[in-house]
Amino acid sequence: MRLKDKTAVITGAGSGFGAGIAQKFSDEGAKVIVVDINESGAKKIASQINGTPFVADVSNDSSINSLVSFVIKMNDKIDILVNNAGVTHLPNSMEAISEQEFDKILSVNVKSVFLTARHVIPLFKKQRSGVILNIASTAGISPRPNLTWYNASKGWMITATKSMAAELASHGVRVNALNPVAGETPLLKAFLGQDTPEMRQKFLSSIPLGRFSTPKDIAEAALFLCSEESSLITGVALEVDGGRCI
Predict the structure, then answer these.
(1) How far apart (Å, rounded) are the C-alpha atoms in residues 161 and 100?
(2) Is 28 assigned a catalytic role?
(3) How confident is the model at residue 240, as a pLDDT?
(4) 237 with 179: CB under 8 angstroms?
């Protein structure tokens, strides 16, 4: 029960890594708000973990404002914010990515962190406590060709994490990030271009430990960084990658 009586808001929690983190946090005693733009996904995961679903567009200011107002009305506080929601584009040369695709990546992967900060950080400052965890990617430190704008968005998130940590430390707020390697999530096919045994093996050959990440891998690391066990850790971007970035 390492998160007993904590209130955790997790974006993109209707599937993949977010769902794994939501499950783990609930198991450890947290009250979990399962946030997703996909209503059915949010409700499904929330029902499985005895959490609370909330449908939100993380790239929209009024949507985030509604989310935070809802959580405060329900629980009076927020202790943990996990910025997990993210999108990518199919592998392609950088100049072939459409403006619409680019805008979506920046809105979901970058602007969302700005928006949640605008609404949650004032609460954390008032409480003199709080933890933010940003789910970045190994793509932000070891970029792959043909995913340039996704790579860049995750590099931004890593830098934002460090800057946020430096600025908020004096307020008792910790900010960290996770850099997962590609995993068994709905985004895997987009990363690979096509999900075939050959493409999987090609990617796996770049991971020394020889397997993709799983939601459980990411959830265990997230739990550590959001619990009191890491009370002296802030501003790190922890690689959960089987050694890919060595």
Answers:
(1) 26
(2) no
(3) 97
(4) yes
